[in-house]
Specification:
200 residues, alpha/beta, 6-stranded parallel β-sheet, 13% strand
């Protein structure tokens, strides 16, 4: 087992569609508020872009935060297309160990249990033991981290994993240096990526 490829899968925007869940709930709860089309999202934090873009709207940041701080927000997030199927296939591959590596929000009350419930519901009970919850992903050991966030920093300057950027609207214009991208779970690219890493 020692030589297995350890793959860390981020949760939000890699397995669970935070951006779509946010957009739909926000439009429903605040139909009179201005909004940013999903294709126009830039930067990791929704709140930052809304506050910058709509600085004249009082409390828009609170409105945004109310959406993801709410009960059932994380639980009800839709799946990223093909993610659950790919994750299950990945976990069954010879020589691969899969973990889910995810950061909770500041207001963790609903987020924490609901992330567990989401994994249980969508991936299955055996996946709950694969969850790693941390604010600092650099502290986690692995070979490969698939994550949509471009700036993954923490206590360790050179983490053990190589970061592959999972494409999301918010990171399409970001400078990702020499890092590779994985654009989706549906075109089969992920299999090649894993084979490449297994051969190292
Ligand atoms: N998050 C926000 N605002 C956003 C996007 C994500 O607070 O606009 C939170 C949701 C998750 C966490 O709890 O960040 C995801 O972090 P990663 O695990 O993807 O790094």
């Amino acid at each position: 087992c020692k030589k297995n490829l350890r793959v860390l899968l981020d949760m939000d925007q890699v397995l669970a569609d935070f951006e779509l869940g946010f957009f739909q709930e926000y439009r429903k709860k605040y139909p009179e508020y201005p909004y940013i089309e999903m294709k126009d999202r830039v930067g990791f934090f929704v709140k930052d872009q809304y506050e910058k873009m709509f600085s004249s709207v009082p409390n828009i940041g609170n409105a945004v935060a109310n959406i993801y701080n709410a009960k059932k927000f994380f639980l009800n997030l839709p799946e990223i297309e093909g993610a659950v199927d790919a994750a299950k296939k990945l976990a069954k591959m010879e020589g691969v160990d899969v973990f889910i590596c995810t950061s909770p929000i500041e207001k963790y009350k609903y987020c924490l249990p609901e992330k567990y419930e989401w994994v249980h519901k969508h991936l299955g009970p055996e996946w709950v033991a694969r969850i790693i919850l941390t604010k600092d992903k650099t502290m986690v050991n692995g070979h490969l981290l698939i994550d949509d966030r471009v700036d993954i920093i923490g206590a360790i300057e050179r983490p053990s994993w190589e970061h592959v950027v999972f494409s999301a609207n918010h990171n399409m214009k970001a400078d990702i240096g020499k890092r590779r991208r994985l654009d989706n779970w549906t075109n089969g690219d992920w299999k090649e990526l894993i084979e490449d890493f297994k051969m190292r």
